[in-house]
Amino acid sequence: MEYPFEQIERKWQKKWQEVNLWQAKMNPEKKKYYVLSMFPYSSGALHMGHVSNYSIADAITRYFLMKGYNVFQPMGYDSFGLPAENFAIQNNTHPQLATEDNIKTMRKQFDNVGFGLDWSNEISTSRPDYYKWNQWLFKRFYEKGLVIKKKAHFNWCTDCQTVLANEQVLEGNCWRCDEKVVLKEMEQWFLKITDYAEELLDFSNVSCWPERVITMQKNWIWKSEGSKIYFKLIDSDKKITVFTTRPDTIFGCTYLALPPEHPIVINWLKESNVDQKVKSFCEKTINSDSSLRTTDDFTKEGVFSGKYCINPVNGDKIPIWITNYVLVEYGTGAVMAVPAHDQRDFEFAKKHDLHIKIVIQNQERDLTVDKMKEAYLESGFLTHSDAFNDMDSISSMKAINSWMEEQGIGNKAVTYKLKDWGISRQRYWGTPIPIIHCNKCGSVLVPDEDLPVELPVDIEVGKTRQNPLLSAEEWLNVKCPKCRGNARRETDTMDTFVDSSWYYARFIDSHNKQKPFSKEKADYWLPVDQYIGGIEHACMHLMYARFIHKVLRDLNLLSSNEPFKRLLTQGMVIKDGAKMSKSKGNVVEPLYMIDRYGADTVRVFMLFASPPDKDVEWNDEGVMGAFRFLNRVWRLINNNVDIIKKNANNTVKESFDVLNDLRYSTHLTIKKVYEDIENRMHFNTAIASIMEHLNNVTAIKNVNLLTKQEQAVFAEACLVIPRLLYPFAPHIAEELWQLTGHKDLIHEAGVLQYRADFLKKDEITYVIQIKGKVRGKMTIPVDTTEDEIRRQALKVDNVEKYIQNKTVKKIVVVKNKLVSIVV
RNA sequence: GCGAAAGUGGUGAAAUGGCAGACACGCUGGAUUUAGGAUCCAGUGGGAGUAAUCCCGUGGGGGUUCAAGUCCCCCCUUUCGCACCA
CA at A608, C1' at B85: how many angstroms apart? Predict the structure, then answer.
């Protein structure tokens, strides 16, 4: 007989709703705990990955609920974006309709799993009451100088027909559709995330973020400290600025290396007398696939530009080369080449027979150009460096920097790889950028009272590949807010990462019509205490959100420095060795499983299969194991309801010694489960210890023949099970709690306290090792002295055999554990 | 190439430097049952032995230690991130 999970789950889901258990109520008297899972894209279906993610979050939520915290776990939908638009195009519908339909379906699915979610604060990013505040924030950013417009070459996905941020290009392809990304010149709106680069490198205000994510973000920002140095061109007033982290080697610079994309090179190519070799090299390099530059067999090539410049520190005339190994997008896009002390420059110089000049000598001072097989990268003493000769190279950097600054030929500088965040997307299904273009006034912000700029809905999506907003005449043509003349709306929409960069803050006050959220609420609920989601967002979403949060703080909308205090990156759900996906045909539908075994079983299986940060291997037999476990719990309690009820108030006394082992098991399990949840968030071992305890309880037979005292121990052992199980299998826990005569909801009983005195043992079993191998065991009273332990250990049967005819050199006693004898 | 994490039974996995394999799946045998994807009992790393017990065993090799899956060094494999960052 299976336990009636379906009926039980409906019942308690309804009950939790009725008492508004999950609705956020701000209460400064009470400590809050804000648990957030990355909200789903409104695809119309929850998949196993979601269920896994939300089961982890719900376990944490319910644990803190039991602890008496004011918990908050909201949910909503990331509902703007290309997939909805593409779906609408294919199915000849409107993204809005499709999205709202999907949301309805998903909500039903959510309800089936029984997560403790506050739906009164549901948000959906594609609704005007949400994206209005995207626009409002855009304006505040604009007023703060954090929005700029740039015309440049951008990553353009030919399939999605839109621009992509640097982060969204993976190995030269689009992160969504995998189509090739090309460069296209256009005008784009940017958020100046680089203004916050330095602060984004500081992780001192987060705790428990995986080191991996921190490293990835630091890597992405890539800060370098060094100098900018200006090289004047010969026969021209123009200067080329280079960035270097090694100003100590400036005297050894023997050529300049530029990429063909460098603005000055582009200008040269426009000159009438361009060398054909230079021209063809530039064209070839620019057109070559940029992802080829990262392959192993990539060779450094270049061509002499025919131009020279002056090394500002010593007046040397040095040639300028155009090369394929310098990145235009990093630093100043120009490199001072020091072949003696940079491996890349060394190789290039050798190949093209360029001058190599040693300016850092090693300790032995025996470096010579002839003997050099590779560049000398270490520190040392300066040489051929005029006034700086014999200075050690490390301290010379500071001296050279300040000297260059005095001379006006260079200065100390810091650069980041991180680029400003291009947020313009040439698509329909996103937040309209609240800008009006006027021929007279330029780009004008839409006044606050006209927000939101709503997406026109009576529009045909998908007639052409281009942005449908371009043909929405009625929407497009407006009056300029400044001069009242004819003007046009901006047709670009925002990157959907803008939506998800502050949604956690809107959740706390989602109905606010005056502001994105109230500061009072923000200061109570934020930061999010525990954020849970996939590792794939390490460099995009998680960095954008940190950036936006810091700006919100500087706009005085909230006070905290970071959006997410603790972060858990959960693993993927795997089946047959691969991530579940339709194309692989290995998808398991959560709803089907919930139908068959119940939500509690599916959750327990997910959490039991592995620690949350590791991948979960889906296994049909494993699910049945979880189901059997809950059935065993169900039977145990049901079969013994009377005894449990009768003994509910019959407290277990300290001084009696029947069923000692069971009492021990009860209290050890309480200790273990809470430690596993709180200290490590290892739900798999927490559930394992509940299973172990269940095995201990069910080993007791003939319960009716037990004495009154023994029955009290037994009843206690049974009653802790639902309470320990509540974070993982809340429905069955509530039902069993009620069944055993309790009127309140189970969390109201609070967390269990284990009794340390019940975990003390009178006797301890010592393991006896000889030369590191276990040779025997002995059980002796706890208070035996060390000398006595030694004496007795030597007398154990099997042990004696091993120490005969040998001298005992040393006996190590580890209290309460083992004795190690060295012979 | 650089960096990080990981490598343990047939499987998912456990093990503050202290009895390797908890817990679960699967499998084997048994009980009960008209039947079982039900329940209960026993067994389950490999090898030797009737048994007590012994030998081997956490990717490979060395080392530290009374004691190493765990700490240190070298190597191999896998996964992830970065990849001409001047």
Answer: 43
